[in-house]
Each structure stands twice: as C-alpha cells, then as structure tokens.
Amino acid sequence: MKLLVCVKQVPDTKEVKIDPVKGTLIREGIPSILNPDDANALEAALSIKDTAPDAEVHVLTMGPPQAMYMLRECLAMGADYAYLLSDRAFGGADTCATSTTIAAGVNKIGNIDLIFAGRQAIDGDTAQVGPQLAQRLNIPVVTYVKDVDFKPKERVAIVDRQLENGYEVVKVQTPCVLTAVKELNQPRFMSVRGIIEAYEKEIPVWTHEDVDLSPENCGLEASHTQVFRSFTPEPKGRGIMLTGSVPEMADKLIAALGEKHLIG
Length: 264
Ligand code: FAD
Fold this sequence. Notes:
- This protein has about 260 residues and is of the alpha/beta class.
- It has a single domain, classed as HUPs (Rossmann fold, 3-Layer(aba) Sandwich), CATH 3.40.50.
- It has helices at about 35-50, 65-75, 95-110, 130-135, 190-200, 245-260; strands at about 1-5, 10, 15-20, 25, 30-35, 55-60, 80-85, 115-120, 140-150, 155-165, 165-175, 175-180, 205.
- It starts with a strand and ends in a 5-residue tail after the last helix.
- It binds flavin-adenine dinucleotide.
- Flavin-adenine dinucleotide (FAD) binds near residues 62 and 124.
C-alpha cells in the first residue's frame, strides 16, 4: 500500500515581515519549517502505516534545494521515501503550475493508494493546491479532514469533514486526495533512530525533464495569476475596554459612539 503526503517548506510566519517599500516578503534570516497542516497530513499517513505493515509512506515537495532539510525531517518522523521537485523552470509557480508539477511527480512515483495534503500553506494561504492536484489526477478530493478511516481492501475512506458548526461524514473512493486540518491528530516527534536513518537515505531530485513536463507547462510560464501588490495592513487603533455593570457599560458605549457622531 502506497500513501503519499504533499509537504511544503514555509517560512515561519510568526517571524515574517513584509518589505514596506517593495511589498515582498523579507525572507532573510527567517527560519523555514514544515507547513503545520502538512505535519498533520504526514501523521495521518504514518498512523495508517503503524497498523498496516505493508504500507509505505512517500513524501513529495516542490521547492528550492533547501527543502531537502524538511524532507529529511519527514523521513526522521517515519516516512519511507522522499522526493524533491526542484528546477529553475518551476520558479515563480502559482497554484495552477504548482499542482501541475506535483501531479507530474505523483504520476512518476505511480500506483498511489491515498494522497494527503495540508488544507492550507501558512505562506501562500490559498488552500487551492490539494483540490487542484485531485483535479489534475482526475480523482476525488475531500477537504478539511479531521478524521480518517481508510479501508484499503474496499478501496474507500470514511472521513469526517470539518464544518463551521459540526462535521459531515463522507465515504470516498480511493485513490483520492484528503486535505488535513490540525484537529486531525497530534504530529509525532522525530526519533533519534529516525534522524540517523534519514541522513542515510537518498532523496531523488527531479527536474521538469524527469517528470515529463515541458518548461512552458511549469513555473512562471504556466502561471496565470498576477500579483499586483502585497502589503501589511495598517494596524488598527487600540481598543477600549469598558468596565462596570452591564447598564454602566451600555451607557459608556452610547456616550462614546455619540462623541464620534456615530449615533444621534
Ligand atoms: P496551499 O494551496 O494553501 O497548500 C495546500 C497544501 O498543498 C499544502 O498544505 C501542501 O500539502 C500542498 N502544497 C502546496 N505547495 C506545495 C509544494 N510546493 N510542494 C508540495 N506540496 C505543496 N512561491 C515561491 O516560493 N516562489 C516563487 O517564485 C513564487 N512565485 C509566485 C508567482 C506568482 C505569480 C504567484 C501567484 C505565486 C507565487 N508563489 C511563489 C507562491 C506559490 O504559488 C504558492 O506558494 C504555491 O502555489 C502553493 O500555494 P499555497 O502556498 O497557497 O498552498
């Protein structure tokens, strides 16, 4: 049984700032991490492997050469194989081009029974890549997955899909793409043995030629999105805390709104 997890290396957004003049991310000196939802996606695949000895967990990323460190982290957590799609031709990819490239990588690995992705990457934040990948591979997708029961013999997965005020239970045929939310599980830590073994494993690096993509079908050339401007919103003014009993606070609120001529 082959399980695949799509993982993305992202800047730790707690540390990210935007250059106020250029409107671009200041990446220098910002630590890179495994995208948090992808850690949940990986944990889901590893949990299936814990109970199914024949299961293999594969992780795949498209990114620059330094994404190799994140892949080794995934191996150290328990993944069996890792692949890096890295090529100048992939640079400047929007979500369409990203999912095309990842789909080509999935096809190269071949015979995947179940694909996990994170719901959303904390830098790009679009939540588009998982559903687009399913569309490229012509397989079903279920988003916002908070529980999974994979039945490989029946080739189905029963998943709980998170909604705003509850969840729905979906039975989906496999292979399919499931996008994970943080409520799915608690990702495990890397083990010492895993870390040692992770550095003994070879990680293939694939270019556009390796996955049979022409340069015009990947990267900037295949990206239809145009970003006009990125900016940090102006901070809002400080809030005011009203104190006292409810009627007192209501009086203070009415007076404050009156002073600003927001009410008559
Ligand atoms: P989401 O759709 O939010 O991610 C959902 C899930 O998909 C993730 O949790 C993960 O499981 C999977 N996933 C997402 N991305 C990958 C990946 N790369 N590999 C494996 N799995 C993945 N970004 C750059 O870093 N460099 C650039 O030069 C660049 N140029 C861009 C140019 C344009 C015109 C645009 C619009 C965007 C550009 N981006 C660039 C951003 C890039 O398009 C997105 O980061 C990328 O497509 C993923 O989208 P997302 O981050 O919103 O992921």
